[in-house]
Amino acid sequence: MSEHSGVSHPYQPGWFDLVSVLIDGMIANAGQQEAEAFLYQMGESLATRYPLPQARTVQDLERECNLQLARFNWGFVQFQPEETALRIAYHALPAGDSLHSPADWQAAFGAVMAGLLSGWLQGQGGSHQVPVTPELNDGTTLHYRYQ
Asked: What confidence score (pLDDT) does residue 105 get?
């Protein structure tokens, strides 16, 4: 378990309530799978609004992602390069509200994060054909694979 497990950032009233209502509406109208696909796309769009400078190393990329996530108060990522993949651990995601189960909130916000990370990796020269996919959710940390 990470030293950062269980760390969560508070949310700001108003914007989060709106996001919560929007997520509920998407799931009610389109279903969980379609809502998560849409949220992934919204994460990719967010990456184009907040592009990262070109990174020369994985360490530089991790730092730039974390600087941007700090701007949003959205926690932080840790990258672990492998031979043919990049493993990403996302810590301290914003806390959900009492209306969504933690699992539902993590799935919705996790889809946004996957899209955001995908967009940032594409901005670094990565392929749109290579998605950032959820690998594991241990309840406190979301894990992804880019391969």
From this structure: 85
